[in-house]
Amino acid sequence: MTSPLQGEDRRFDSAPAHQSYKRRKALGQNFLVDEKIAQRIVDAAEIKDDEDILEIGPGRGILTEKLAQMGKSLVAVEKDKWLFTVLNQKLRRENVEIIEGDIMKVDIPDIDVIVSNIPYSISSPLLFHLFETKWDRAVIMFQEEFANRLTAEHGTKQYGRLTVMASVHVKCKKLFRVSRNMFLPQPRVHSVVVELKREAPNYEVKDVKIFDEVVRAIFTHRRKTLKNALKTRFENLELDKLPFMELRGEVLNPEEIANLANEITKLI
Ligand code: SAH
């Protein structure tokens, strides 16, 4: 990879020999190299002076350098030892903490806003991991296909388990698309920046486990009617009495699926 970096920033590329292509790939290392896009991402977060920020996978720090000058504090978690070391030397500031670690394993402090271009390979587990902590909103760049599934409307092909399970925790909105040409090395796919607002849904989920089961049944058997899809998991229940049974589950919005799951919870 030819480095687009100048001067001391070239250190990010002079990683020790153990930094193989395979490891870079495993860590999802596609670095954003367009300053304007980086600025747009940071601006979209509308960070206030008293807010604590989290960044996941800062990499060479294109977002980090901007975020470090904003809000009250910044925590950035980077798994790659070399990138961590260089970034940590560059950004020695009182209100900035670069942590070497795996975001799936470190204790995430309470924060207000997340701004990240994340490693795409862990998008789904990472998102649900983040739902376990407290925060208000996030501006995250995802692989385009993932962003489409996350923000899909019910009844569409992209609408699925991800859309419904995420909707329990956040309201999502696509902000803008980023071409794969804006990264080095170039990934095979384009990206989309998504805004996620932490918001309780306007419906209640009485039993999360049953809700999860219902959602799984619906989207594992997308082509079946609800009755037949649900039969695969709840074979002893009298499903006929429930609404929508002759429809496909994928046409229901999250609220309707939650209400249905609540009805099933009552029957069990
Ligand atoms: N945000 C940077 C880098 C994106 S590449 C940019 O926009 O250019 C993804 C980054 O996440 C890489 O730096 C990679 O080393 C890091 N990473 C991968 N898996 C991680 C994990 N589990 N925890 C923390 N960081 C991780």
Write the layout of secondary structure elements.
Layout: H1 21-26, E1 31-32, H2 35-44, E2 52-56, H3 64-67, E3 73-78, H4 81-90, E4 96-100, E5 113-117, H5 123-130, E6 137-143, H6 144-150, H7 161-167, E7 170-178, E8 183-184, E9 191-198, H8 208-220, H9 226-231, H10 254-267
Parallel strand pairs: 2-3, 2-5, 3-4, 5-6
Antiparallel strand pairs: 1-8, 6-9, 7-9
Helix pairs in contact: 8-10
Bound molecules: S-adenosyl-L-homocysteine.
Residues 27-32, 56-60, 62-63, 77-80, 83, 102-104, 117, 119, 122 line the site of S-adenosyl-L-homocysteine.
Task: Give a verbal description of the structure.
By secondary structure, this protein is α/β, with parallel strands linked by helices. The protein has ten helices and nine strands. It has a seven-stranded mixed beta sheet. It is elongated, with a radius of gyration of 21 Å. The mean pLDDT is 94. The chain binds S-adenosyl-L-homocysteine. S-adenosyl-L-homocysteine binds next to β1 and β3.
Mass-distribution shape: elongated
The hetero molecules present are: S-adenosyl-L-homocysteine
CATH superfamily of the largest domain: Vaccinia Virus protein VP39
> How many structural units, i.e. domains?
2
Largest sheet: 7 strands, mixed
How many runs of DSSP E, i.e. beta strands? 9
Element pattern in H and E: HEHEHEHEEHEHHEEEHHH
Assigned CATH architecture of the largest domain: 3-Layer(aba) Sandwich
Based on CA atoms alone, the radius of gyration comes out at 21 Å
Helical segment count:
10
Give the strand content: 15-25%
- Give the spatial strand order of the biggest sheet: 4-3-2-5-6-9-7
CATH class of the largest domain, named: Alpha Beta
Low-confidence stretches: none
Please identify the structural class as seen in this structure: alpha/beta
DSSP helix fraction: 25-40%
pLDDT averaged residue by residue: 94
CATH topology description of the largest domain: Rossmann fold
Distance between the termini: 58 Å
